[in-house]
Design a protein that fits this description.
Elements (H helix, E strand, L loop, with lengths): L7 H9 L10 H7 L3 H13 L3 E3 L4 E3 L5 E7 L3 E8 L4 E8 L7 H17 L6 E8 L2 E2 L5 E3 L12 E3 L5 E8 H12 L7 E7 L3 E7 L2 E2 L19 H7 L4 H6 L1 H7 L7 H9 L3 H25 L3 E5 H4 L2 H14 L5 E4 L6 H19 L9
Parallel strand pairs: 3-6, 6-10, 11-14, 14-15
Antiparallel strand pairs: 1-2, 3-4, 4-5, 7-8, 9-10, 11-12, 12-13
Length: about 375
């Protein structure tokens, strides 16, 4: 049997260039993908047998029954989803307010959205082969949720995603900021870089770490939980009463609101007031940026990434991340490229679709040329 595990990346490249390829393992294939003619032919046979591609005498394309994947970005206020084909085409996208209720509410909502997207695209549920979901919490290797202060979720996440009472597909859960970092690494500022750190400032604060294309999760899935940094004049006292983490308590949207006239103004309006010259609004945002820069500088000094990307509803605002750039330069001599997210609010769902693609391609590459598990 031929083990095709190393072909994961090659399969992805092949599927992204189907319209440019001849239907046989010609010298063009060999030169583009740097594999032997024998291996190219084996891969073509395997993809055809698994109904991933179909070939005619003149062309090669995705098989009409080829798998599709879905990525979700589940937040405390909204959920975004995208249905995509294996060649990277986006077929359907959705966005809804996050359903609140018991710990199953959000999962049930995404199952309904998945069925709705498949129906809208005219795709039978059987073709959905992988779902990836970013959640606002820390998840360990066994699917246990160790931290989720802003959304009720089951303590143990399922391994299968229910499409009907009898039909299920594999599901992968990952921290939402980790997926935003993954999206930014592959489709945003991080392309062709060796490392990237993504810090999201918004309702809460979180951090994702990418090194050589891999998410750094930590032993219990809590690597990057920057919200827990004890950055405070009285950290031991503050830790006893903190819910989301000491650092988060000082830089979250709620903290900004409280600093401005007692908390009755939305953060987006505070930014608008600052743009119009409101002295108090300007001072509140500058003070928050100074505190936020301490966390950013801590990440830079510990991880030394090539890129540090700021995201989230607050972090993507130039008025905020430009101040952080300014303050971090005062704190550190370490060179780093700091900027706002190139993907904005879509970074998380783009990362989720990317992860779903990777998991689906890995499952495909785990089969030998006879269609048996390797």
């Amino acid at each position: 049997m031929v083990n095709l595990r190393p072909l994961n990346k090659t399969i992805k490249l092949v599927l992204s260039q189907l319209d440019r390829l001849p239907p046989s393992a010609s010298p063009a294939w060999v030169s583009v993908f740097d594999i032997s003619p024998e291996m190219a032919q084996q891969m073509l046979n395997m993809l055809e047998k698994q109904q991933i591609i179909q070939r005619t005498s003149e062309s090669i394309c995705l098989h009409p029954q080829s798998p599709v994947v879905i990525g979700f970005d589940l937040g405390g206020t909204k959920v975004k989803g995208r249905l995509a084909s294996l060649d990277g085409r986006e077929l359907v996208q959705v966005e809804q307010p996050t359903r609140k209720g018991d710990e199953q509410s959000a999962l049930q909502q995404m199952a309904q959205l998945a069925r709705s997207m498949l129906k809208q695209a005219g795709i039978p549920p059987q073709r959905l082969q992988q779902v990836a979901i970013g959640i606002p919490g820390a998840i360990d290797k066994l699917g246990n949720v160790n931290l989720s202060p802003n959304l009720r979720l089951p303590s143990q996440l399922p391994a299968l995603f229910a499409l009907t009472d009898t039909l299920h597909c594999p599901v992968t859960f990952e921290n939402d900021v980790n997926l935003a970092a993954l999206g930014e690494y592959h489709q945003g500022h991080g392309q062709n870089s060796d490392s990237l750190v993504f810090i999201a400032f918004g309702t809460g604060v979180g951090m994702g770490i990418i090194v050589q294309g891999n998410i750094i999760c930590g032993h219990a899935g809590m690597a990057g939980e920057i919200s827990l940094l004890p950055l405070s004049a009285t950290p031991y006292e503050d830790a006893r009463v903190s819910v989301g983490g000491i650092f988060e308590d000082r830089v979250s949207s709620q903290a900004i609101r409280q600093r401005y006239q007692g908390g009755g103004t939305e953060v987006i309006d505070i930014f608008r007031h600052a743009e119009k010259g409101d002295v108090q609004a300007i001072a509140v945002l500058e003070n928050t940026a100074r505190i936020a820069a301490l966390g950013v500088a801590s990440a830079v000094s510990m991880l030394n990434p090539q890129w540090l990307i700021l995201g989230g509803g607050i972090g993507t605002r130039p008025a905020f991340y430009q101040q952080i750039q300014h303050f971090v330069r005062q704190l550190l001599p370490v060179p780093v490229q700091i900027t706002g997210s190139a993907l904005g609010d879509d970074a998380g769902v783009i990362g989720a679709v990317y992860l779903a693609h990777q998991r689906c391609l890995t499952a495909i590459s785990y089969h030998d040329v006879e269609g048996q598990p390797a």
